Amino acid sequence: MSAEPAAPLYARQTLTSNKSRAAIFSGAKAVIAEVGNYQSNIADIALRAQVSKATIYNQFADKAEMMECLVEAEVIRLIDIALNASSRQEALYLLSKEISQDIALRKLVESDPLDIAKLVTITPHPTWVLVHQGIAKVFGADSATLGVILRWLIGQIPSPITQEESLQQSKRLSATLFS
User: Fold this and answer.
1) Do the Cβ atoms of 163 and 101 come closer than 8 Å?
2) What is the pLDDT of residues 43-101, one digit of tens each?
3) Distance, CA of 146 to CA of 133 (rounded, Å)
4) pLDDT score recorded for residue 1
5) Mean pLDDT of the chain
6) How would DSSP label each residue in 129-176?
7) Does residue 4 lie in a domain region?
8) Is residue 11 predicted with pLDDT exceeding 80?
9) Cβ contact 88:178 at 8 Å
10) What are the C-alpha distances in Å from 157 to residues 34, 89, 104, 105, 144?
11) What residue numbers bound the domain in which 55 lies?
């Protein structure tokens, strides 16, 4: 017998569920990067995530809900990256680099332009509220400054920039907005 007590059943189930969700999101991004959203399907995502289709449907009602949750998870991931940056300029650079170099976004721009148009249109949707709150938390700036940052980042979804451009523009933007 093990000397350590077993983790409570609920904690183990939550951990397993979180791992499954992360695998599903990773699989979905990989499939989307290859074929886009509309050409992707649950079977291919399950195969890539190494989970069953039933596991996906236990987590999400349908593909649309899975995709909405994926976008939300990506927003949270980007906010976490920016919060862990050593400076505002580094946060701008890291966000820019992540957005501009994301191959799933590149494929969506090419294959699903109407979805990208919806994605880059600021609305009162809860995901946009999360984006705005995250940017405010990272940069702690006034509304006008947050608007400039948000629009600069949004512009990189349909028109990505290189890592060097991300670095140069983040330096200039930081110097302009935060000096």
Assistant:
1) yes
2) 999 999 999 999 999 999 999 999 999 999 999 999 999 999 999 999 999 999 999 99
3) 10
4) 47
5) 91
6) HHHHHHHHHHH---HHHHHHHHHHHHHTTTS---HHHHHHHHHHHHHH
7) no
8) no
9) yes
10) 17, 19, 11, 7, 21
11) 9-178
Inside any domain, residue 3: no
What integer is the mean pLDDT of 123-139?
94
**How many independent structural domains does the chain possess?**
1
Please report, as a single letter, which amino acid is at residue 164: E
Cα–Cα distance measured from residue 64 to residue 70, given in angstroms and rounded to the nearest whole number: 10
Which residue has tokens 């880059």? 120
Q: What are the pLDDT digits (tens) for 13-23?
A: 565 678 999 99
CATH number at residue 115: 1.10.357.10
Asked if residue 51 belongs to a domain, the reply is yes
Q: Look at residue 55 and tell me if it is in a domain.
A: yes
What's the rounded Cα separation, in Å, for the pair 96 and 152?
9
Rounded to an integer, what distance in angstroms lies between the CA atom of residue 70 and that of residue 50?
A: 17
